[in-house]
Amino acid sequence: MERTIGASAGAAVSLVYMLPADHREAACRFLAGVISGLVFGGPAGVLIAARLGIAAHLTASEIMLSGAAAVSLTAWWALGVLARVARRWGRPRG
What we know:
elongated
């Protein structure tokens, strides 16, 4: 449950940083953010909490939620940058 909430929140918050060019890009980036948050949220949360030295002060749910949100936000943003770079520098077809 925490992973799903965190991953969805991370993907939604990232809309503020970089708006998608169209509905298809938004759907793909949101889905990729949610999936990556679900898959990598746990390990990322543990890593972040350990690096910050706050693991002892957080519950397992908080660690999972923050990790999923962080991974989702990062993946969503990175895919947006890659899509725009590919569109800009890609070869024209023809």
